[in-house]
Structures are given as C-alpha cells and as structure tokens.
Amino acid sequence: MIRTLIFGAIAGYVGKKLYDDGKLDQFRDDLVARYNQAKADLSDQRVADSKPVTQVNHNTSPLVS
After folding, report:
1. What number of other Cβ atoms are within 10 A of residue 9's Cβ?
2. pLDDT at 29
3. What's the pLDDT score for residue 41?
4. Which of the ends of the chain has fewer CB neighbours closer than 10 A, N or C?
5. Count of CB atoms within 10 A of residue 18's CB?
6. Predicted structure pTM score
7. CA 47 to CA 55: how far, in whole Å?
8. CA distances from 59 to 35, 56, 63, 64 (A)
C-alpha cells in the first residue's frame, strides 16, 4: 500500500509539472482531433446504415400454373 501511495504521489507530481510546462497540450489536441474524427465517422456510418437496402432474389422461379 505504501508503494502505491508513493507511486501515485510521484505520478501526480510529474503530471502537474508536465501540465504546468504546457507539454500536454499536443497530447490533448491529438486526443480531441481523434475523438472528433471518430464521432464524424460514426455519424457517417449511421447515415449509410439508415438508407433502405433493396434486395433482389435471383433464385426465385416463376410460378407454373
């Protein structure tokens, strides 16, 4: 448990230093860009999936009376 607390404190300190220095801005911008791209792709996929699909069955034979 002590190791976890020490590791958490170190990670928090290093993260705060990186944030204050502005070194996480590029990471944040990349993350936002990827999120927006995924959201747009999902929206395009929903539009494509909502279009009616017509099926043609070529294996039907005419009825013989």
Report:
1. 10
2. 93
3. 93
4. C
5. 13
6. 0.50
7. 19
8. 45, 9, 13, 15
DSSP class of residue 59? T
pLDDT tens digits for the chain (65 residues)? 899 999 999 999 999 999 899 888 988 999 999 999 999 999 988 888 877 656 656 666 556 65
Domain chopping of the chain, boundaries: 21-49
Sequence-separated (6 or more) residues with CB below 8 Å from residue 24: 18
Q: Are 12 and 5 in contact (CB under 8 A)?
A: no
Which residue reads 């070529």 in tokens?
A: 58
Which amino acid does the sequence have at 13?
Answer: Y
Question: Dihedral sign, CA of 46, 28, 13, 16?
Answer: negative
Whether 22 contacts 29, CB under 8 Å: no
